[in-house]
Write a structure and sequence with these properties.
Blueprint lengths: L12 H15 L18 E2 L5 E2 L9 H7 L14 E2 L5 E3 L2 E5 L17 E5 H7 L16 E5 L5 E5 L8 H11 L4 H16 L6 H7 L1 H9 L4
Antiparallel strand pairs: 1-2, 3-4, 5-6, 7-8
């Protein structure tokens, strides 16, 4: 996790996401200022007073491309590049991306599900681990680095709380690492690929190339004197 700048809300976001979402909530008779009645609310078919069936309320998915571009295709938590898979026409047909609600949409006023400032570009592995957990540390408001890279006794590259924390306690940072699964096996495997590739090809890649591909791994390997 590194400091990330919150992208500016796209001009079309209000008309494409926020307003349709709020209208849908009102049609369903749900006060946007109240939390959803249950965790299945967002994906369960709803019947309105007019008898219409609305199968989903996930209007935030309309912001997919804006989030991908705004966050430079990087998961805000793992710093890995996460791109949607597209067909020959450019239509998204899959991928391991996810749109995360930093403040869980099941615990906040329902209107927050459609707010740009609450949406993050995310690797689905991280988002599945995060679930409805409340994360105290938000990458878009970090004033500096809070984690460091470390090679453990098994030769695996993990993250740990930075030794000189000025803004958060070690316990707060470790809690965030745990809730996001930043040291889970699948995350560590992918991180190791970056690390090993950089170390093995230090004379092939330029600093600019490594920083563009994985800024956190690059800066930490440089700090550790490994590249």
């Amino acid at each position: 996790m590194i400091p990330v700048q919150l992208p500016q809300e796209p001009p079309s976001f209000d008309a494409r996401v926020r307003q349709p979402g709020l209208v849908a909530l009102r049609i369903l008779g749900h006060n946007p200022n109240n939390p959803p009645p249950n965790e299945c609310f967002w994906n369960t078919p709803h019947r309105t007073a007019a008898g219409l069936i609305r199968t989903t309320l996930n209007y935030w998915t309309r912001a997919r491309d804006d989030l991908c571009t705004g966050y430079n295709r990087r998961c805000v938590y793992s710093c890995f590049v996460i791109e949607p898979v597209r067909d020959s026409s450019g239509k998204v047909v899959g991928g391991d991306y996810s749109i995360d609600h930093f403040a869980p949409k099941s615990l906040q006023p329902a209107k927050e599900a459609f707010e740009w400032i609450n949406l993050r570009w995310c690797w689905n592995v991280i988002n599945n681990k995060k679930g409805d957990a409340l994360i105290e540390i938000d990458p878009v408001s970090l004033p500096g680095m809070i984690v460091e890279l470390e090679e453990d006794v098994r030769g695996k590259w993990i993250v740990r709380p930075a030794q000189n924390l000025n803004f958060f306690t070690t316990e707060q940072v470790q809690d965030t690492i745990n809730k996001l699964g930043l040291n889970s096996s699948i995350v560590v495997v992918r991180r190791n690929k970056y690390v090993n590739d950089f170390i093995d090809n230090i004379h092939v890649y330029s600093d600019a190339e490594m920083c563009a591909r994985q800024p956190f791994v690059f800066s930490e390997l440089r700090r550790l004197g490994r590249i």
